[in-house]
Write a structure and sequence with these properties.
Layout lengths: L1 H9 L1 H19 L6 H10 L1 H14 L5 H30 L6
Length: 102
């Protein structure tokens, strides 16, 4: 329990910034018109490729016995990959709407 309290006291600035980013992100996305949600979401999901690469780098640099880092890295790679694929699927479906029908 002391380690958790020590972690929060040492990293309170970063925790504050992350919480602030969540609130700002929700506020910004909430103001986007409904027409622009699909392109915004597909572009944001494609950016998750960076998350996948970062998670792979973290997994490569962690100790083989650090199971927490390995499991969290695997979950990040899996969910980031799902998000990237989903973003491209949404983009493909959106672009299909603009093609002329035969």
């Amino acid at each position: 329990m002391n380690e958790i309290i020590e972690f929060f006291t040492q990293n309170k600035d970063m925790i504050f910034i992350v919480v602030l980013m969540v609130f700002v992100g929700v506020e910004v996305i909430g103001k986007v018109p409904a027409v622009l949600h699909t392109p915004l979401m597909s572009g944001a999901n494609a950016i998750h490729g960076v998350v996948v690469v970062g998670a792979i780098i973290v997994m490569l640099n962690s100790e083989p016995t650090n199971y927490v880092a390995m499991v969290l890295g695997f979950i990040a790679v899996f969910l980031g990959t799902l998000n990237v694929v989903g973003g491209f699927v949404v983009t493909d479906r959106m672009l299909e709407m603009f093609k002329k029908k035969k």
